[in-house]
């Protein structure tokens, strides 16, 4: 890169859609319009002295090894930190690398973490792993502030939760939990993947660390894996980065480049998906053959008012209960537009049966507590016409 190539910083008053296209661009001497893909694992030095100096104290735009950082991945990190409203970010190989890194980088034996019990199966695995290494983990109903209040202790090191739970779409009060955590100096770590960076206000509401699976809405087309940890510069560079760069959790330059391209259209895509999700949920509510329709944007959702305050909308995900596994499987197999997959946030609409896929390792008793019934389907609404999606689902009911 050219000597005067510095990250492009934009006026903070500009709309997030503008910042998602332009912020943090690093241009080489060629003045390329598209973000450059630096497909290299290493970097050369002009002298042995320069190599020594860089290893001792690398500057903000100096690189050593792709596992430590890369110009392309740094552009993605800068842009995500800007969108999320944090000082810094570290891009990871996957969303679970972000969750693992955000928790493992600071936790030690004897620490106490309070977590919502309604989590993605792999997030629960990470917490189980922490417990095996001597971290005490207390689980609560994430929607009940009284349970958070009772569980958080003076020695609690951190709280962790999904702002909107996977797959039953429970909404956790970020500001309420953050107030309780800050009273004892506990770190507030939020998995914000269902809220998306478009509807996120997590930092304003008290989150210290926000993690995303960039695989989902940020990429938006189901092409590659990625994740990101957003937080203070001290947390990201002094705690998360050392853990991730030494354990190999950094994103690949190619995947970071794909995520950068995804960010350019993310707001347009996600807002269109959320609008369609509301139309789908509204049309299916009261539909014969459905036990319930779960969508935070519907007035009957238990946390509807909170979702409106916290996100300004209901998001892109809908859950429906058909009453039994047999009915759920039959409907899935009749669908022609909805694709059976365990991903979400894609341009293509996706249907998932959590009890037999994403949450299958949980016991039946635990799934019941989380509202993951045998008839529950998770719908990720894509960019297709909402009317076509509604017709496809209704046809699937037979």
TrEMBL record:
One of its GO terms (cellular component) is cytoplasm. Its EC number is 2.5.1.-. Residues 1-11 have a biased composition (Polar residues). Its cofactor is pyridoxal 5'-phosphate. One of its GO terms (molecular function) is pyridoxal phosphate binding. GO terms for biological process: 'de novo' L-methionine biosynthetic process; homocysteine biosynthetic process; transsulfuration. Residues 1-23 are annotated as: Disordered. The modification N6-(pyridoxal phosphate)lysine is found at residue 216. Pathway: Amino-acid biosynthesis; L-methionine biosynthesis via de novo pathway; L-homocysteine from O-succinyl-L-homoserine: step 1/1. InterPro entries: Cys/Met-Metab_PyrdxlP-dep_enz, O-succ-hSer_sulfhydrylase, PyrdxlP-dep_Trfase, PyrdxlP-dep_Trfase_major, PyrdxlP-dep_Trfase_small. Keywords: Amino-acid biosynthesis, Methionine biosynthesis, Pyridoxal phosphate, Transferase. Pfam families: Cys_Met_Meta_PP. It catalyses: O-succinyl-L-homoserine + hydrogen sulfide = L-homocysteine + succinate. Homotetramer. HAMAP family: MetZ. Belongs to the trans-sulfuration enzymes family. MetZ subfamily. Catalyzes the formation of L-homocysteine from O-succinyl-L-homoserine (OSHS) and hydrogen sulfide. This is O-succinylhomoserine sulfhydrylase. It comes from Paracoccus thiocyanatus.
